[in-house]
Amino acid sequence: MDNMIIIILLMALITYLTRFPMLLISSRWSVPDWLKRGLAMVPVGVFSSLTVPPILFHLREGQWSPEYLVAGVIALSVGVWRKQIVWALLAGVAVLIGWRYLFGL
């Protein structure tokens, strides 16, 4: 148990040390507009890289899983409509839960 606490504390320290220099630098100089625009796209890129492969490549018995495709389309629609990743994520998860509850998969 003591070993686990040491590991967790070391991971926290490493996480802090990797982020601290950027916070220190960004407090001393202003970020250019082109960098702000680029950083604004990071959440969209991360979200799509985490969601698109499971939707397109989640095969069940050699065929695409319809619940993932439907959840992906609904999540995309809600994301375009609401323009917020959280709502798209919640909509996709709700569709998956509902699909599995209704069809028992």
Notes on the protein architecture:
- The protein has 105 residues and is mostly helical.
- The protein contains five helices and two strands.
- It has helices at 2-28, 33-40, 42-57, 66-82, 85-103, and strands at 59-60, 63-64.
- A two-stranded antiparallel ribbon has the order 1-2.
- A hairpin with a 2-residue loop joins strand 1 and strand 2.
- Helix 3 runs antiparallel to helix 4 and helix 4 (66-82) packs antiparallel against helix 5.
- The protein is flat.
- The mean pLDDT is 85.
Topology:
Layout: H1 2-28, H2 33-40, H3 42-57, E1 59-60, E2 63-64, H4 66-82, H5 85-103
Antiparallel strand pairs: 1-2
Helix pairs in contact: 3-4, 4-5
- The SSE string, one letter per element, is HHHEEHH
What shape does the CA trace take? flat
User: Termini, distance in Å?
Assistant: 38 Å
Radius of gyration over C-alpha positions, nearest whole angstrom: 20 Å
Number of helices: 5
Sketch the major β-sheet.
2 strands, antiparallel
Largest sheet strand order: 1-2
Helix content: over 70%
Number of beta strands: 2
What is the strand content? under 5%
Structural class: mainly alpha
Summarize model confidence as the mean pLDDT: 85
Given as residue ranges, the uncertain stretches (5+ residues, pLDDT < 50) are none
